[in-house]
Design brief:
By secondary structure, the chain is an alpha+beta fold. It has 12 helices and 7 strands. This is Ubiquitin carboxyl-terminal hydrolase.
Length: about 325
């Protein structure tokens, strides 16, 4: 039996559209965006920014303190914020989101999430994790945008191959310090206090995350970073009205361009999420058969490999840019 069948929680992609749809289901007025650089300008463009969600290749216990992906900081067993342990497989994405949301003051939420957070108040992290992952509605929301299991190899007695495991954690400011909330760790991890001046907590977060990224070999693609931020649409729409009333056409056009890009991004997310809800294996198989019979499959395969090579090189270049900013 697979991990998904045992836990009931399916794997989640590190995709801003997936996380944003989950936040919408939770009744939270926030979105998630990709973050390709930790430089000041990139972070400033996403303000107000509440947390950073970090996906990394998980390393087993023997090397976790010093090997790739290892983290700094010190355990805080007296952490007074919201922190839940991961007690089932594949739930780390939603758990990272909840560990972030539970520590954002005065955040509006939907009734189900509000009741869940209220009910778990005062619980220890292990019990809170059990309560969260026992919520059927939350598991269903988590699984809605997980790619369907296309082919099952269970029962065929095939040799099992070890696969790389990836894990989500969250970095955010709590009570004047940067904290790392990792559901697989016994306690919240406190990194250091931060100054409210300048970039505030993001300056400390940059140092901590870049140090963690630098534990991987140069050019590695074994991590990604997402930003949890306010939904910019209401603010953009308000600023456009103000620019129109002031007769500032230049600013109005600039804001309208930004709004158009935001709306196009939402449309792309909606389309991609709709694809995630369907199993396309039958269609893909039929198309491959037709292309093979017509002699076009080899050419298409070569083009696909070249396109993938280009995408990998682009991602490596973005990773190197982050290293250079350190």
């Amino acid at each position: 039996m697979s991990d998904e069948e045992q836990s009931g929680w399916q794997l989640t992609e590190s995709d801003p559209g997936v996380f944003t749809e989950l936040l919408k289901t939770l009744g939270v007025p926030l979105i998630v965006d990709d973050l390709y650089s930790l430089d000041s300008d990139s972070l400033a463009n996403l303000q107000p920014l509440h947390a950073l969600i970090f996906l990394f290749k998980w390393v087993a216990s023997g090397d976790s303190e010093s090997g790739p992906g290892s983290s700094s900081g010190t355990y805080d067993p007296d952490f007074q914020g919201f922190f839940a342990h991961q007690v089932v497989n594949n739930a780390c994405a939603t758990l990272a989101v909840l560990n972030a949301l539970g520590n954002i003051p005065s955040l509006p939420t939907g009734p189900q999430l509000g009741e869940l957070v209220s009910f778990s108040t005062g619980m220890d992290p292990q019990t809170r994790g059990l309560v969260i992952t026992s919520a059927d509605w939350l598991r269903e929301a988590h699984n809605t945008l997980s790619p369907p299991s296309a082919i099952s190899l269970e029962g065929l007695n095939l040799p099992r191959k070890s696969e790389d495991a990836y894990h989500f954690v969250v970095y955010l400011p709590v009570m004047g310090a940067l904290y790392e909330l990792d559901g697989l760790k016994p306690h919240a991890v406190r990194h250091s206090a931060y100054s409210e001046d300048g970039e505030g907590w993001l300056k400390v977060a940059r140092e901590v995350i870049e140090a963690r990224i630098n534990t991987y070999p140069m050019g590695s693609l074994e991590f990604s970073l997402l930003a949890l931020r306010d939904d910019p649409l209401p603010t953009l729409q308000s600023k456009i009205q103000e620019a129109q009333q002031a007769g500032n056409r230049e600013l109005e056009h600039e804001l309208l361009s930004t709004l158009t890009n935001e709306n196009a991004k939402r449309e792309r997310w909606a389309f991609e999420n709709s694809l995630r809800k369907h199993n396309h294996v039958g269609l893909v198989h039929a198309l491959l058969m037709v292309m093979a019979k017509s002699g076009k499959l080899s050419e298409a395969e070569a083009k696909a490999k070249e396109a993938m090579k280009t995408r990998i090189e682009q991602r490596k270049a973005r990773g190197e840019d982050m290293d250079e900013d350190d």
